[in-house]
Each structure stands twice: as structure tokens, then as C-alpha cells.
Amino acid sequence: MILIKDAQIMTMAGTNFKKGSILIKNGKIDKIAEKIEVKDEYEVIKAKDLTVMPGIIDAHTHLGIGEGGVGWEGHDYNEMTDPITPHLRAIDAVNPADVDISEALENGITTIMTGPGSANVVGGENMVIKTSGQTIDDMIVKNPAGIKAALGENPKRVYKEKNKIPTTRMGIAAVLRENLIKAEDYLEEKESNKSENKPFQRDIKMESLIRVINKEIPLKVHAHRADDIMTAIRIAKEFDIDITLEHCTEGHKVAKKIAEAGIPAIVGPSMTGRVKVELSELSFKTAGILAEAGVKIALMSDHPVIPVKNALVYAALAVKAGLSEQEALKAITINPAEILGVNDRVGSLEEGKDADIIILKGNPLNISSQIVKVLIDGKVVKKKSN
């Protein structure tokens, strides 16, 4: 058992401690209190004058599926041969030995969502993993966690080069609707045949998509421009499916509409350059405007677009642009946990949850703060080198 003693604790669960302790047992948080009696069998981590907070969660990356430092051999996130590929599974491509996963861990990122890119209208299954483990199967928190879809420039560019639908925004929306209708019909036929004990030929693409139709997992829709955001909202209503808005670069223009729809936004990467038209209004202000409107937000790196290791810096820059400090910290902890559907395990420091914890010297949102220790599942996986 591990006892973190006398720390300033930011639980992200509503109750903080200026000086408190956390007892960890069997990889879980056993107790949080102002004082916990020290026993001989405890391994004590003295944390006086240090800050303790939940491990950071990045809700949108391509870690492990777009490996760092190895070139095209490690770029497995876009299967640019078919605009509809819901059956692709991130678990079959993520390399746990990716150096960028280790770097994320060193910088306090303990949980990430990773998956396919945005070349296709429907790209494949995402997954949520921890950043520590020898095999990907050991690292899974939730799989699948959603199915990637994309609107706007990326699928337009990819399939225009192939002279194949979709080459316009109308085409993208039409192809997406067509396949959601196919999934509805497939599900109806599958259930009918099952009830009548008739044989049924399975379709691996539709088997993935019906989980969206059944609201088992959300469609995670890449949408930068305001008009694409509204298309995503429109389609979600048409098919009564759950979605998340990924990037949401012009979300500030339609913040009220997003809030009214009750759809969460995973915002970013806000530190990249304006490398395409869709990013012409890129700003760190977007997160604050969305949060003020009542939208649940998380911040993303979109790694490798910008490095996941700097998650705390991106949160600090969002604060500088108008997001409150509390909302910024929520946007990299409990909010992404809730959006990804893993808040029963991670995202806040509460009794019974996974002991994914970072211990820092200084304010987490201060660029000069230092991470002293990182724990995942109650194990110290990073110590500050002397």
C-alpha cells in the first residue's frame, strides 16, 4: 500500500485539500482525507509543498498508430483506399513501444484516446488506453470508444485525387447518410432473421456501424468549420445517434447551437499553424467561449500534429485566452474522462477509482512547474531524475 502524505490535492471532484493524504491499495484509491494514520506496511511518499492531481487525459490523439521518429513505416492511421472503413480497429495498429507514448507518460499524460485519422468519411474504431504497459491489450481502458468520421477538407482532398465520391461537402454528407441508413437496415434485418431463426450473412463494416446506431458508442466527427459542425449536429439529430465534435475550430461561431444540442467538443489542436483554409480562425479563445456557453469541453493535442507531452501548456494557453483555470484543468482530466465514457475509472481522484496520479512542484498551469512522480494503477512509473 502507498500513502501520499501532506500534499495539496486537486481532486477534480469538487473537494480539494490544502493539505491531505491519499491511500492507494491494489492499484485503486482507497481513501482520501486530510489526515491518514501512517502504518508500518505503508510505502510513504512525502508530498509536503507539492501538488497532487489526476493523471492527464488527452481525448484525441494518434499515439502509437502514427509513431514518432520512424517515418512512413509507422504511419498507420489513414487507410486511403475506401471512404467508408468503420471496421478498421486501432487496436490492430497501435504500437505500445512508440517512443511518443513513453514521452507522454513522462509528462503526466496517463490516459489517451487514439485511433484513425480523418482521410475517410468514416475512418474506423478508436480506443482509450493507458500510457503504460508492455502490450496494447494490457493498456486498454475502453475498446472501442467510438468510430471516427470526418467532414470538410480532408476527405474532399483525398477522394478528389482519386476522382471518386466524395469530392464535395454535399458528397461527404451524402455518403455518411447512405451508410448510416445501410446500418439501420442491416440491424433491422439482422434482428428480424434472428427472431425467425433464419441464416444471416454478416457484414463487418455494418457490424461496427450498428454500435453507433444502437448508441453503444458515439460517432466522433472531425469538423473544423462552423458549417461542418452544423452538418454534424443535423445528422446526429436525423439518425438519433450520439456524436462528439472533434477539433471544433470554429465552434465559437455556433457555441449556442452546440450547447443546445448537448454535444461535447474536443477542442484543438490550437497551437498548430493555419496550414489549411479550415484553420483560418484557429484560436485558443474557442475553448473558453464554448465553456461559457455551456458546452462540455476537452482539450486535445491531435498528436502528432502537436506533441501530446505539452498538454499542461495548452491548458495554460487556453487560460491566457479566457478559459478559467478550473475549467482548463477539467478539460484535461474529468471532462475528457466523461466524454470518453471512462470516468468510472479515471479523470478525478476519488475513492475506488484507478490510482492514476501526478505529483508536481508548482502550479500545474505554470510552465515552470515540474512533474516529480507519475503513478498509473498505483505504481510509480516515473520519478524525477536528480
Question: Can you characterise this structure?
Answer:
This protein is α/β, with parallel strands linked by helices and 386 residues long. The chain folds into two domains: 93 residues, Roll (Urease, subunit C, domain 1); 291 residues, TIM Barrel, CATH 3.20.20. The protein is 29% helix and 25% strand. It contains eleven helices and 16 strands. The strands form two sheets. Strands 1, 2, 3, 4, 5, 14, 15 and 16 form an eight-stranded mixed beta sheet that branches. Strands 6-7-8-9-10-11-12-13 form an eight-stranded mixed beta sheet, with helices on both faces. Helix 1 links the parallel strand 6 and strand 7. Helix 4 packs across helix 5 and helix 4 runs parallel beside helix 6. The longest helix has 27 residues. It is globular. The two termini are 25 Å apart. The mean pLDDT is 96.
